[in-house]
Amino acid sequence: MLARRVQGRSFLSGTRHSSTVDNHAFAQSLLLPKTSFALRPNPTEVEARYRARTSTELYQWQSKNLDRPQFILHDGPPYANGDLHMGHAMNKILKDIINRFHLSRGSRVQYIPGWDCHGLPIENKALAELGKDSASLPPSDIRAAAHKTALREISTQKAQFQRLGIMADWSNETTYRTIDHAYQMRQLRVFRNMVEKGLIFRRYRPVHFSPSSRSALAEAELVYKDDHVSHSVFVTFDLQMENVKRFGNHDFGSSTVQLLVWTTTPWTLTANMAIAVNPELPYVLIRRTDAEAPLLIVARDRTDALVKILGSIEIIGEVQGTELVGLSYAPIFTSLHASRPLKIIPASHVTAASGTGLVHCAPAHGAEDYHAFQNLGLLNTKDELVCHVGSAGEFTSDVVDVVGEAGKVLVGKEVLDEGSRAVVDLLKQAGALVKIQRIKHSYPYDWRTGKPIIVTATSQWFANLDNIKGDALAALEDVVFYPPVSRARLTSFVQLRSEWCISRQRVWGVPIPALHRIATDEAVLDSPTLEHILSVLNEKGIEHWWEGPIDDFVPPALQEAGVPVGDVWRRGTDTMDVWFDSGTSWSMLSERENGVSRSDLCLEGSDQHRGWFQSQLLTAVGSAPPSQSKLNPYGALITHGMVLDEKGKKMSKSLGNVVSPMTIIDGGTNVKKEPVYGADVLRFWVASVDYWNDSYLGSFVLSQAAEGVRKIRNTARFILGNLGSKETRSSIQRVPRTELGLVERYIMHELRLLEQTALEGYSQYHFAKVSAALNNFANIVLSSFYFDISKDGLYANALDSIERRATVTVLEHVLNTVTSIMAPILPHLAEEINESFNETDASVFMTPWTPLPPEWEDQKASDEMKLLLRLRTAVLAGLEEARTDKKIKSSLEADVELLVPDLEQPLPFIELLQREENLLKTLFITSDATLVDEGSLGTQSPEWLYMSTMAIPSSDEDLAIRIRPAQLEKCPRCWTFTRSSSDPLCPRCTSVVHSTPG
């Protein structure tokens, strides 16, 4: 409520402004804040001073505390192929916040940073640096270059991770790399266990294949782009009519009947082996407007949609899909399968949702087609599968055998480019092309190269997931997911998989140690052979598989007397999927009480539901003994989203919107636009966002994070300055809880609530809840209220006064608790505060976070203070009006009078005011505040007067508020207007000065 101003005559005769007392004469007697804790330090210098203490040294110290319960956070390995980006920074900072929280609460943390060192990204980087392509170098040179590149990039990333303040032992011995010998041997033993359980097999079948990588890919290595453009075609196949005289009630006579088919991959038509129909669908015979055109068979439910392709049509007959099954048709390309007719087959995956309701089947280039042929027993040998696509995604010379002489134009052409266009030209020449249609649709791309993939048949190693899927899903039931909705995502991915293609056609990777009989190319991969091979590799190193003689790897049982081993056997050249590499990393973890290697927690980006989260689960369940097959490799999974720019766009070099974590820490070339923020500001930003979803980052949100850290820093600085040195504090007796005043009990209540909120937020991995509560407490409870009303007592009261000791008692609790709360998020700032306060070089994390006891919760004090704070708001509004009207500069120039109504029954609020009357001037930061009966105001009119009212809680009465000039003179020591004109100081300052030694 706004105050109303009342103008009156002056009763002070101007004496209050004519004092000649020196307002600075007693400054030395004040207890003004003193601290070496800098206001605006250089973040880079401060963090460098504490980096070793709060990172490697701290991790090594805590790892030796074997009596503590262990918390294992398992690190998903990033690729060792470049500088850190914001995704890396968010990921590692989130993990570090979690680790530091568990450490501060008394756990011994096991956190071993790792790197994924194999795979195409590193191989490509090495080749680019050499200026060569893979075809121009021997495999050994590629492996050597990739190994060197991986080690160099690990060194760079390791240094940058340390700049983020990540607590770990960063020596090589306590990190893991998928190129380390011990790691690879564990991986191969996991693989051996899966072989022994009959889960690994080799098959020639269609797989996702990347021509740009020249390797097979797993589903997890694909990204789907919705704007892919394909040139789809409608083509016809002639139905052979010699055994079919009637179609429904229609007499064919001499008419030609064709099967109309639509495909988005015209290049696969040269490998056509059947046309599939759904037996449950009705099909129709249609005639186009052109009477001479052949009759067409399509699904009945597609006729309306096909009018746009065919023009006007007439339905002249209908038949069920079951009647089409088994009919023969002629191939488009005359040389194709000349020795046998092609058949119409049944397939449940055919629908009438798109196309024509008839599907061209090329089982070498489609999983559904392949399974349909398998189910019908049409694929008994590898040779029965028609495939003429090479390792670069090009048509091979085999296409000539299938298509005939015309097929020579296809040889060597990429099937996704010139090859597809050449097939369309052949379709035109054959008279089979009805329509070309350009469509935009979702299509799989190689996530590493960003180029489209194909589906084509190759010989690959697979893991059979059907046999372990049930155990894997059962294991997931005991896993806790953050956010909870992510459970459905991982569960659905596991449910939908039946196989995992684990082989890759790369030279840089862990070999699949299989022997192949040269005469038949039969692969031998069994337990005895693997046991022999692994013993050799363990002794001589993994590289020996590529460089050592084949004789070393063929066990005696497979050797033929008198025949050189090299004439009978060759080693396999396939390497393992990198997801298998990183997926077996659980095997390096400390074994728990049940003998199982298992982490408490894994945290990665949401894309790892398709990758690392799955590969850990599948390799752990797949290699476990039967008694442990349902045990999961992790207790909880946390996923985070992507980091986007301020406009919500994905960061991209081409868009110029990439924000580097190192630029945030060290500043950019233009420090005005890209200031030096340091790691703690970056960490505070990570802790302030809802990281479970995508997060936005730019200059504005960074400046907000910097302001948040600055407020917390200033809070600590104010407290440190007023608490004084360790020696000074040791001489001050703390005030027991029972003797604290209302304000102090309220602040402790709020501090206890803050701490409980923080503990809950950390425990639920909801860090934004922690940072928001901390920010609010520092800004609202402390800076805008408690610090403001405490300054007078801290500066002007005697060092041993109970009022000051009470404030010091509370401030000490606040500093300790706030430091504990901030430490996981802002470790460098916490270390700096701890060093300044405790005058020690021991890490703040070496002292356990001990929460405040429950007795500090004081709801009564909270309720009463909320009432007084409502009154304070009303009074401050009146003071602000007086300041605006230039009646006062400082609120200390005013007194407040609260006019208590004359009531028969006392009200609780009035009783509260009466009890806390001495507190009121402190709350209002005025020189005096008194309760006045309405009938005792007298007749004197002040120079000016502002009046307002406040509704008294739980009553119909109002409390009148009068703001008037202070009635006494300004004290030159404390600057309150509490001095009698005849005295040099106010009574309080007189007492303090006279009692101070010296």
UniProtKB/TrEMBL annotation:
Record-annotated Methionyl/Valyl/Leucyl/Isoleucyl-tRNA synthetase anticodon-binding domain positions: 744-897
Subcellular location: Mitochondrion
Residue span(s) of domain Aminoacyl-tRNA synthetase class Ia: 54-694
Gene3D superfamilies: 1.10.730.20, HUPs, Valyl/Leucyl/Isoleucyl-tRNA synthetase, editing domain
Keywords: Aminoacyl-tRNA synthetase, ATP-binding, Ligase, Nucleotide-binding, Protein biosynthesis
Domain of life: Eukaryota
Catalytic activity: tRNA(Ile) + L-isoleucine + ATP = L-isoleucyl-tRNA(Ile) + AMP + diphosphate
Pfam families referenced in this protein's UniProt entry, alphabetically: Anticodon_1, tRNA-synt_1
Any one biological process term the GO annotation gives: isoleucyl-tRNA aminoacylation
Recorded GO CC terms: mitochondrion
Entry keyword annotation includes ATP-binding: yes
InterPro entries: aa-tRNA-synth_I_CS, aa-tRNA-synth_Ia, Anticodon_Ile_BEm, Ile-tRNA-ligase, Ile-tRNA-ligase_type1, Ile-tRNA_ligase, M/V/L/I-tRNA-synth_anticd-bd, Rossmann-like_a/b/a_fold
GO MF entry, a single one: isoleucine-tRNA ligase activity
Stated family: Belongs to the class-I aminoacyl-tRNA synthetase family.
NCBIfam families (alphabetical): ileS (TIGR00392)
HAMAP family listed in its UniProt record: Ile_tRNA_synth_type1
Name of protein: Isoleucine--tRNA ligase, mitochondrial
